[in-house]
Amino acid sequence: MLPNTRFYHSLEYKFEDNGQLKDTELDILGINDDTIYIIEVKAGELNDKHRRGALKGLKDRMEETISEGSYQSHRAKNYIETSENPIFEYVKDNNRESLLIENVENYKIHKITVTFEHFAGLSINLKYLVESGILKKEYKWAWIVSIFDLMVFKDLLNGEDDFNEFLENRLSIYDRNDITFMDEIEILGFYLKGNFPLPAEDIKKQILMIGFMEDIDNYYTKSGVGMIDIPKPIKITK
Q1: How large is the angle between the packed helices 184-192 and 147-156, nearest 10 degrees?
Q2: pLDDT in tens, 203-217
């Protein structure tokens, strides 16, 4: 999905907390010439009670996954931006290696939380998570996506330029009140129809990102049963 990015996993770094240095971890860090991806992966699953509407249990599980992942990526981003020499350590081929990030000001930094569970509309609009107390406002600038949706993005986006264009516009939605959406793949479909970049916010002109999954669903339904020569949805350039 990001062929020009070098990825490192299971990293360790020292983070200052109340004047004390503490050892902490980061799941994945990706870095290329101009972008850093800070990625946390959370494997918590919903049980039958959560699926039937047990709100307290559902809230607790979302705090364990979405909130915790967002906090950890926020902490790593803060470490990179505020440290004179941000250094991460990791193990490669049984050897301990160090990764020093220099000239941090030259990079864009994206935070991503990948979940095993598909939370759908419960997690894609962080505004509601902040209002419900699940997520602290300062941690909200992270893209939250299930591993299954991420597979679709890998399949349909054409390289790093498309991914970053999508991600930058996707994150801007969090602060807008003129957009309605219910599913991450709907937003992808909206993007593939050539609708990014978004116009300036206008509360009188609501943008409905609904009904943009048909081509994507059709592609996977038909290709999934063995039909050949099914055209893959691609980005329309307007």
Answers
A1: 10
A2: 899 999 999 999 999
